[in-house]
Write a structure and sequence with these properties.
The structure holds 3 protein chains of 3 kinds.
Chain A (H helix, E strand, L loop, with lengths): L23 E6 L6 H12 L5 E5 L6 H9 L7 E3 L6 H7 L2 H13 L5 E5 L16 E7 L6 H4 L2 H5 L2 E5 L4 H4 L3 H12 L4 E3 L9 H18 L2
Parallel strand pairs in A: 1-4, 1-5, 2-3, 2-4, 5-6, 6-7
Chain B lengths: L1 H8 L14 H6 L6 H29 L5 H14 L4 H21 L4 H4 L6 H11 L4 H24 L3 H10 L1 H11 L9 H11 L9
Chain C lengths: L1 E6 L5 E7 L4 E7 L2 E6 L9 E8 L4 E6 L3 E3 L9 E9 L2 E4 L4 E3 L4 E10 L4 E10 L8 E10 L2 E10 L14 E7 L8 E3 L2 E6 L2 E8 L2 H11 L4 H8 L1
GO cellular component, one term (chain B): cytoplasm
Pfam families (chain B): UreF
InterPro entries (chain B): UreF, UreF_sf
Amino acid sequence: MPPDHRIDDYVDPYTPEHRNGGPLRVGLGGPVGSGKTALAAALCRTLGAEYDLAVVTNDIYTTEDADFLRRNAVLPDDRIEAVQTGCCPHTAIRDDITANLDAVELLESRHPGLELVFVESGGDNLTASFSYGLVDVQVFVVDVAGGDKVPRKGGPGVTASDLLVVNKTDLAPLVGADLGVMRRDSDAVRGDRPTLLISLREDPAATEVAEWVREQVRARALQTAP
Amino acid sequence: MTAALLTLADSRLPAGGHTHSGGVEQAIAAGVLADPGSLAVFLRRRLATSGAVAAGLAAAACRAVDDADPVAALGALDAEADARTPSPALRAASRQQGRGLVRVGSRAWPHPAWAALPAQPHHPLALGVAAATGGLTPRDAAHAAAYLSISGPATAAQRLLAMDPITVAAVTARLAPEVDEVADASAEDLPAATDPLLDLLAELHAARNDRFFAS
Amino acid sequence: MEVVARCDARGRTTLPIVRASGQLAVRRTGAASVHLVATAFGPLGGDDVEIRLVVEAGARLSVHSVAAAVVLPARGESPPSWQLVRAEVAGVLQLAPEPTVVTARADHRAELHAQLADGGELTATEQVLLGRVGEEPGRWTGTTRVERDGRPLVHTTVGLGPGAPAWLPPVAPRAYVSTVSTGGGQREVATGVDAVRLPLPGGWVGTAWGDELHDAVTRLASVSPRPVDELAEVTR
């Protein structure tokens, strides 16, 4: 074996900051029905005029999410890529990210000025999270209808995501969820990491989440500045 | 260099294999694959055709790394792979997996040979270069290719049909002598064995928009 | 066996060389067409035939046969029979022999190696039936390699019959037909029941199978881009 293949010689030069610029990659994960696709569509509508952006969808089946985005995000077809996950949505975003990297790189080559890519995972469970080989930051979306115990249950998505979004706050009275409990439990398990309680029905622009994304784009620009 | 070979053949190697069913998803839809018996038959025909072709190409690509002009040698093999893969869906699946393997292989085993590969090479070519740069022999490359021609599809069948994973593992394990036979028979040659059924299934699959797998 | 087709000064095809020996005779049946005629039963196990076809620039050649070839096993342990067609094509070559019937215990290997020069066009159709009526199927292995300017366009080997590694129930057809054509670009794929057409650079390859030869022929026609009447002539 050549000497540079020894483990002692190994230095990984491929951290996200060293990707030679390129767009900020934002993962959008969370359980089925929590509103990932609706949030992606809202962010595309709100940020589409500010940034050169694109979306990768990881539907477990069909290209339904991609089709939804085409209809609702005012995003041209050539800015949406759907990947097949081989029945394993969490594998495709965490363990073997090849198909997603291919999709991101395809979008990058198609749109050389790309500044922002959302990678939307297929609906999965509370243990699913993105590999940082695929995304720079990740948002985990849960909803109030799942019960106010969700943040307390934790899981990597809830505890370690860069932003936790609790969606559908408008439903809290209907499902008997206590937003105060959700806020408190989230803060308890997440330390300094932010949590936003939102309702896409009441705020279709996802204003606060969009602002958080802007901060991340700015932070990455500083990080990768020559 | 057994451990490097195990690394190459490991289904957890993040090279994108888990999103390809090797025709299994469409075989299930077409009603030709439904249980362990028909899975074994399907894997056998895949091994004997695309498995043999991949094994031959992988071994040749492994040797091409030491060629005086590896760019030309690998380019010629890429054309041979195309000629053996007239199905556009199967070509795309092969090149997609080739690209994935280049991504991980070139970081694990940096070597000028990676740059000698055509952009988005056929998977067996990437496998051959990975074997060479990982210190393996052409015969090892053939074995990895032959094994991978059935291991991924077997897992896909398990997922899609909710088959007993132990049954599927047993089916795969019992094909080992045939995998070895195909690899040994193909390592010094460039077989062109084809299965028109797999071509048809691949094209029908590619035309669907309700699929879990990329191929 | 050897046939050379040449384009004369007035642009017409002539056949300066038409010769054969052994189990195959060859007859001129038109200005630019020949028919192969078997001089004995068979091919028989152990037979080995090489056919060289040269179609020079501007010339055309059609190669047919007068009857189906019925491949028979030799006595005892029958070795395979071989037929190798080597074609050098700068003009237009059409290969459309009658079906090959491979009887029980027989093992036939058919190879086509075609080298196309720039502007050379090839259409080759193959029809195979395993076993006569009520008989066990025989083995058939067909290899097609077509190169243009030294670069391979297609190279495939199909194995049919008991013991062929990919001839396994529930898809183990008795009848198989295929056409490879480089006479024009067909970028689209076409699929049908037990039939598929795939694009080649500047051409296509179609394959179909079934229990009976006429089923397979009809299925191939359903995915072939050629006009139906022309196809009927090719696969008559």
